[in-house]
């Protein structure tokens, strides 16, 4: 009798064990829970925050990248525009986000390379609070443009006109500390011009008001200027940066016209600090794949942008550090003080 009962128990125990294992798996416990914790990235939508308004060059580039990333990652990459304060609002949001790869920053370079020099109590550290991922655009400059009613066609004529004006003229940019603001202040310091700065939240707003005649002069991005250049309501007189702009290949750079300004802007993708390397490398690889696609290169060209060359997160980090120092010198010459 005892032998028979013992044999029966041995047969029941494996059955019970397998039953509990099945129940645990079906209820999300045991092995299923472990699998959920290590689910491949991404397993839900990604939020891409950017510091620019809809329609800007940053916005349109971000949407191109987000669209292709959504396809490659098989999860939506949603663009979230948070313009204002020269990118501080958007940058701070990402700096405080969880480093899980679901909150990213797509930004122009000034948020990390200029703001530390002109913003008192900046709520983030450009070198410590972000993880570099990829740089979709090649470095480029901005456009110095004037309303078409202004009788100037180059930098020399503009300087002479401003100096001879009996009233103080105004220029706009996309915010205090923006690339446009600092470039113009640098130009003022080098030429002796006197101009009043009118800051806007976005380059689009600045350029629209220039075309409407509310301001006389502006430093703006190339994409925002295109429709107004074509309509004849504004005129480009110089390009900042080391090369002529794709939108205006016939417009000389500031350097070609006697006032060298080789500092350029770029667009790049960052995450919060401590973003895991596998996520960084996955995103970097996908962005680099976009840059190598002939189809996407044509889309960049349609926006008058030059795509960047495939690069590593480390190279982007080195670029941030180098440009941070270079823009510090520009700020020093321009005389702009922290606010």
Q: Helix content range of the residues, please?
A: 40-55%
Q: Any idea of the CATH class of the largest domain? A: Alpha Beta
Structural class: alpha/beta
Overall domain count: 2
CATH superfamily of the largest domain: Bordetella uptake gene, domain 1
Description:
- With 339 residues, this protein is an alpha/beta fold.
- Helix content is 45%, strand content 15%.
- The chain has helices spanning 2-26, 31-37, 57-73, 88-95, 110-113, 115-118, 155-164, 179-191, 203-211, 222-231, 277-291, 294-302, 313-334, and strands spanning 46-50, 77-81, 103-108, 130-134, 143-147, 169-173, 195-199, 217-220, 234-239, 267-272.
- The strands form two sheets. It has a five-stranded mixed sheet with strand order 2-1-3-10-4, sandwiched between helices. It has a five-stranded mixed sheet with strand order 7-6-8-5-9, with helices on both faces.
- Strand 1 (46-50), helix 3 and strand 2 form a beta-alpha-beta unit.
- Helix 3 (57-73) crosses helix 11.
What attributes characterize this protein structure?
five-stranded mixed β-sheet; D-Maltodextrin-Binding Protein, domain 2; 10 strands; 339 residues; alpha/beta; disordered N terminus; globular
Topology:
Layout: H1 2-26, H2 31-37, E1 46-50, H3 57-73, E2 77-81, H4 88-95, E3 103-108, H5 110-113, H6 115-118, E4 130-134, E5 143-147, H7 155-164, E6 169-173, H8 179-191, E7 195-199, H9 203-211, E8 217-220, H10 222-231, E9 234-239, E10 267-272, H11 277-291, H12 294-302, H13 313-334
Parallel strand pairs: 1-2, 1-3, 6-7, 6-8
Antiparallel strand pairs: 3-10, 4-10, 5-8, 5-9
Helix pairs in contact: 3-11, 8-13
């Amino acid at each position: 009798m005892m032998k028979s009962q013992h044999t029966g128990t041995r047969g029941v125990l494996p059955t019970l064990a397998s039953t509990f294992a099945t129940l645990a798996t079906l209820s999300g416990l045991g092995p299923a829970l472990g699998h959920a914790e290590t689910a491949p990235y991404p397993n839900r939508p990604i939020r891409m925050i950017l510091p620019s308004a809809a329609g800007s060059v940053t916005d349109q580039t971000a949407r191109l990248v987000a669209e292709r990333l959504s396809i490659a990652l098989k999860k939506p990459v949603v663009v979230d525009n948070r313009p204002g304060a020269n990118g501080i609002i958007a940058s701070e949001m990402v700096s405080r986000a969880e480093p899980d790869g679901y909150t990213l920053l797509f930004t122009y370079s000034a948020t990390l390379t200029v703001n530390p020099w002109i913003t008192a109590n900046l709520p983030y550290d450009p070198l410590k609070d972000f993880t570099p991922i990829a740089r979709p655009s090649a470095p480029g400059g901005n456009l110095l443009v004037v309303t078409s009613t202004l009788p100037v066609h180059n930098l020399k004529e503009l300087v002479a006109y401003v100096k001879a004006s009996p009233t103080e003229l105004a220029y706009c940019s996309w915010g205090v500390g923006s690339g446009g603001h600092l470039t113009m202040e640098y130009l003022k310091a080098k030429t002796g011009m006197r101009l009043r700065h009118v800051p806007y939240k976005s380059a689009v707003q600045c350029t629209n008001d220039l075309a409407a005649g509310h301001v006389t002069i502006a430093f703006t991005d190339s994409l925002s200027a295109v429709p107004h250049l074509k309509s004849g309501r504004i005129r480009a007189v110089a390009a900042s940066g080391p090369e002529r702009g794709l939108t205006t290949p016939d417009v000389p750079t500031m350097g070609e016209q006697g006032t060298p300004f080789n500092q350029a802007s770029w667009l790049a993708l960052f995450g919060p600090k401590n973003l895991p390397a596998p996520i960084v490398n996955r995103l970097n690889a996908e962005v680099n794949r976009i840059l190598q696609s002939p189809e996407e290169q044509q889309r960049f060209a349609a926006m008058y942008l030059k795509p960047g060359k495939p690069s590593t997160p480390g190279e982007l980090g080195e670029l941030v550090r180098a440009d941070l120092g270079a823009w510090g010198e520009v700020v020093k010459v321009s005389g702009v003080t922290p606010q």
